[in-house]
Design a protein that fits this description.
about 550 residues, mainly alpha, globular, glycosyltransferase, glycosyltransferase activity, MptA/B-like, membrane
Length: about 550
């Protein structure tokens, strides 16, 4: 009996320690954060350099926009530049257009890195002088404008949005019928959908397709008008990110321009949310805005009165709306609930009260959207649609595919599918455990809810069955408001920079010789440019970034 009691105690102690209940601090995660200090604005020399950096990034996005006329994700039908003498030349010079797009992408990434000298200084220090919020906003706007009017880049998903919205507009259930069954194989919208998704039902939530149905009613089968309307939604999402991110960063003791540089000026945002017209922009924007509303109620209100509850419920509704675009963002409610429970005492009863309140509001909101839109709850059964793709950026998928390929080489047969059925559930359990640990860390006060949410989303993204380049923003954007240490900023800078320059403008529809030739030309052009501007742009850190003098922090972390 004593042996069993001792074993039970050891198991309980191990479980509590694994969840972070019996540790004084979460050292492995807390290393990602330190409060940033206020520093002066740029001097006259740095202002001239900022103007050059701003022009450099704008030149890159203009090159990408021009190249997109030939090698972007152009529509199969209703291509406005097809046959046009001057503009149509880019479609006939694929290798040259691809090289132009690669050069533009690399230039934007370099401009972003140079801008970081005036936002975060270096990965492990602070800038001597920091760019102001208005200067950063104008830079971001200048870089976004060319991509806002360019054809879609890096993805054909917007054409799936148009087809699925048209299906909903015809009164057909988009969660049971794909474009071929819903619209017909000869429909102009169907023909623009990638072959892999033509028989696939919609994986998006009812709010997105409800809005899309309204767009379909306005634009009909006019593809260009439909693309413009969906890009307006993406830009609205980016605007929400720009609004919410600085406010969340101040709560975490991080400079607003540091958070905006990493979370909004990020090339992945420019290339994939704006250029690629992905609905992740609206999902992230609503999630962050809702999180800010909830934290205003939880952290800023001295008492819980009617106004505080209204602000809290409004934030929960906003986060729930984001989950009816893409369901992943619903996890943010867990961290809001833990922060609320901590405000109420952090005990089990407080957690239960918070969970019941948030579940009630989220449930009512979801049911209302699903019912009023007329789309029902079929979207809950199509959330796993994207897992049909084997993504090299997904750790469990890459492990399963590599192991399966090794089996083929050894003559054991192709067991990739069987291996994926093992690696993906194990990865899901790992992501769930990390998310649970972050929830506990929020409830005990060791981590700010913004940081804990970012870490949890990072685990989910890395261990997700399918990872697209823009999925990385699910973690990067919230973590940009909290994580400041090199352990995070290093990977958060290097990975987007690499992914941004290796993504093809419209997938893999190029011959190998075209990719190699364009890449070689792009490398030569970029290297020559760096050499020629070594004295005009701050390529070297000296004089640009240095440890700042002790100053007041931007905010207080919990």
């Amino acid at each position: 009996m004593a042996v069993l009691t001792g074993a039970r105690r050891r198991i309980v102690a191990f479980g509590r320690r694994a969840l972070g209940l019996d540790v004084p601090a979460d050292h492995t995660i807390a290393v990602l954060h330190t409060d940033e200090k206020e520093v002066p604005g740029l001097d006259h020399v740095e202002l001239r350099q900022l103007d050059r950096i701003r022009l450099l990034g704008a030149t890159g996005t203009v090159l990408m926009a021009i190249a997109a006329l030939g090698i972007g994700a152009q529509p199969v039908h209703q291509n406005p530049v097809s046959g046009v003498r001057v503009l149509g030349i880019f479609a006939r010079a694929h290798t040259g257009s691809l090289a132009m797009c690669m050069v533009g992408s690399a230039i934007v990434v370099l401009a972003w890195l140079l801008l970081g000298r005036f936002a975060i200084g270096s990965l492990g220090g602070s800038p001597r002088h920091r760019v102001s919020r208005s200067q950063l906003d104008r830079t971001l706007l200048l870089w976004i404008l060319p991509l806002s009017v360019a054809p879609p880049l890096f993805s054909n998903d917007v054409y799936s949005y148009l087809a699925q919205s048209e299906i909903a507009g015809r009164g057909i259930d988009p969660y049971s019928e794909g474009p071929v069954a819903g619209l017909g194989i000869d429909n102009v919208l169907t023909n623009n959908v990638p072959t892999i998704w033509r028989d696939t039902p919609a994986p998006y939530g009812p709010l997105f397709l409800w809005v899309g149905r309204g767009i379909a009613e306005l634009t009909g089968e006019n593809i260009i008008a439909g693309v413009w309307a969906h890009r307006a939604l993406a830009l609205a999402g980016v605007a929400l990110i720009v609004w919410a991110l600085p406010r969340l960063s101040v709560r975490c003791g991080v400079a607003p321009v540091s958070a905006l540089w990493l979370g909004a000026c990020n090339p992945l945002v420019l290339f994939h949310l704006v250029g690629g017209v992905h609905n992740d922009a609206l999902m992230l924007g609503l999630m962050l805005a809702g999180l800010e509303f909830c934290l205003r109620a939880i952290e800023d209100s001295p008492i819980f009165d009617a106004r505080t509850y209204a602000l809290l419920i409004g934030g929960v509704v906003t986060i729930t709306l984001s989950s009816t675009i893409k369901f992943t963002s619903i996890i943010a409610l867990g961290f809001v609930g833990m922060a609320l429970a901590r405000r109420w005492g952090a005990g089990p009863w407080s957690v239960l009260r918070a969970a019941l309140l948030l579940a009630l509001v989220a449930g009512v909101t979801t049911v209302a959207i699903s019912a009023v839109s007329g789309l029902g709850f079929g979207w809950l059964y199509t959330l796993n649609t994207a897992s049909a793709v084997r993504s090299w950026m997904s750790l469990p998928t890459a492990l399963g595919v590599i192991t399966g390929f090794g089996g083929v080489l050894l003559g054991l047969g192709d067991h990739t599918t069987a291996l994926l059925s093992i690696t993906r559930p194990i990865a899901a359990l790992g992501a769930a455990f990390i998310a649970l640990r972050m929830l506990v860390a929020t409830n005990t006060g060791r981590l700010h809810p913004v940081g804990a949410l970012g870490v949890a989303l990072g685990a989910i993204v890395l261990l997700f069955p399918v990872v697209q380049p823009w999925y990385l923003l699910w973690a990067i954007v919230p973590l940009a408001a909290w994580a400041t240490r090199p352990a995070f900023r290093g990977p958060a800078v290097v990975v987007p920079a690499i992914v941004s320059v290796i993504a093809m403008p419209r997938g893999a529809e190029f011959e190998v010789f075209q990719i190699v030739g364009a890449a070689v030309a792009g490398v030569i052009v970029v290297v020559l440019f760096v050499v020629l501007t070594k004295n005009r742009l701050p390529w070297r850190r000296t004089g640009v970034s240095a440890p700042s003098q002790p100053a007041n922090a931007y905010g207080v972390t919990s």
